[in-house]
Amino acid sequence: MAKFSFKGILQNDGWRSNVLITTNDNGFITSIDSNNETRNTENFDGYAIPGFQNAHSHAFQYAMAGLAEVHDIAHTSDNFWSWRESMYELALNISPEQMEAIATMLYSEMVRHGYTNVAEFHYVHHDKNGKQYNNLSEMGSRLISAAKTAGINITLVPIFYQKGGFGKAPLKGQKRFITPTIEEYLQLLESSKNDCKEYDGANIGIGIHSMRGVEPKDIAELAKTGPQDIPFHIHISEQLKEIEDSISYLNMRPVEWMLDNVEMSNRYHLVHATHLTNNETIGIAKSGANVVICPTTEGNLGDGLFPLIEFQKVGGNWSIGTDSHVGINPLEELRLLDYGQRLISHDRDTYAKTIGDSGHYAIDMSLKAGRKAMNNFSIEYFKIGEKLNASVIDANSPLLATTSNKNRASSIVYTSDASHQLATIVNGKIVAKSGRHIDESTIAQKFVKTLKELNNR
Predict the structure, then answer these.
(1) Is residue 287 part of a domain?
(2) Which of 195, 303, 323, 357 is flagged as catalytic?
(3) In a domain, 33, yes or no
(4) Is 71 a catalytic residue?
(5) Which helix (H) or strand (E) holds 278?
(6) Which residue of 92, 111, 220, 243 is most buried, as measured by CB atoms within 10 A?
(7) What is the DSSP letter of 133?
(8) Catalytic residue among 56, 209, 233, 272
């Protein structure tokens, strides 16, 4: 049993002051009460909000964060497709041990910034020659091990990846990603599911790399006959070229095709969906599917801006992810998402249109849709019978020290940074405190050793 006291916690209907949360030995909340004791209690002079959900991650790409910003001025442009070549070079060279070291560092940084859950969109499956490992999910098992060491919950989403583009054979740089058939993908999925049993903070999702990466008829077949009780993730409509190629190959846009050929529901998570028509925007919302938006990566790659305002008007649900990890702070993702919309709409109430409180709405939407990406459909922030996952913000940070309940959520979202992160609690355990992960030194040493081996920086 453990006891945690907070100056306040954010619940669905607002703030509760002076709260004591008790958990059992497995991290499940057994009581939420007014605090009237401090003995044998972990006391936080801080405000607890639900742990953030990182609904889209490519862990290995953290090793190249910041490396794609030196450009050859002799070239006329540098875009997603040229960035992708650098990413392939990294993917072709990492070993399972290096994958684990990179992911452990990344996940520890996520925890330090307040994330308690991550959906790992995982497609580096095979060895450096493109051959299967004896354990089909060897690389996935390393990601699970990394999550366990870092103390974050992980939803492993092994990715089905067949093609080099619409109707095209795989590229040489994709040889570690490729699974030719549905049958072989389901074997990989089953192997990954078995590896999830090694960590009680792990579960499984199903994933398609993209419309260009898998033959459309196989996407429809897997959606119809594959597992129906786990989340379904897919990259879609991130790049204009992808849409142009889809129209050429299918006479339809990617999201348009999905809406016509797949019976989507709230277990579907469309990653990026940057370039949509109005009909596609409405269609996604009506289907119940969610969109995963990755503002720092989308900004870094020059993808474009998701039509969030139009999506919200028709009841669309969205979460956030850090994708290539050029940014790892959830508050930064939420702010950039909002500010992009403000810049093109010239209005300041992107998030506030629904409940009037921009900060609370951002936390609420990203939490609920993000949880669904992890196969968690609970909508209550902190609930008896569920595990305690919390991001704790320093109540003594200057702007929060005198902030009222009315303004606190928005003050956290719009003014806080990593220095205000007092602690992160995952499954009832303190994993980061006072700006540091509890195993920071050991994790960082292995990470630095790996980067020296890769010699890519």
Answers:
(1) yes
(2) 323
(3) yes
(4) no
(5) helix 278-287
(6) 111
(7) P
(8) 272
Q: Which helix (H) or strand (E) holds 450?
A: helix 440-454
Residue 80 is predicted with a pLDDT of 67
* Angle between helices 96-112 and 440-454 in degrees, nearest 10: 140
Domain boundary (355, 373, 391) is at: 373
Q: What is the DSSP letter of 173?
A: G
The predicted-structure confidence for 177-222, as pLDDT tens digits, reads as follows: 999 999 999 999 999 999 999 999 999 999 999 999 999 999 999 9
pLDDT in tens, 380-439: 999 999 999 999 999 999 999 999 999 999 999 999 999 999 999 999 999 999 999 999
Which phi and psi (to 5°) does residue 391 adopt?
-105, 125
| For the chain, percent of residues with pLDDT exceeding 90 | 89
Answer yes or no: is 251 within a domain.
Answer: yes
Residues 101 and 32 in one domain: no
Could you give the number of structural domains in the chain?
A: 2
Residues 424 and 435 sit within 8 Å (Cβ to Cβ): no
3-state helix, strand, coil in the chain (%, to 5): 40, 25, 35
H-type alpha helices, 78-136: 80-91, 96-112
To the query of whether residue 272 is one of the catalytic residues in this protein, the response is: yes
Same domain? For 140 and 256 the reply is yes
pLDDT, position 76: 63
Arithmetic mean of pLDDT, 270-299: 98
C-alpha neighbours within 13 Å on the C-beta side of residue 218? 23
Taking the C-alpha atoms of residue 135 and residue 41, their distance in angstroms, rounded to an integer, is 44
Other C-beta atoms within 10 Å of 218: how many?
Answer: 17
Q: Which of 233, 57, 60, 56 is nearest to 142 (CA)?
A: 60
pLDDT for 352-379, tens place per residue?
Answer: 887 889 999 999 999 999 999 999 999 9
User: Using one digit for the tens of pLDDT, what is the confidence trace for 3-36?
Assistant: 999 999 999 999 999 999 999 999 999 999 987 7
Residue-range definition of the domain harbouring residue 124: 52-373
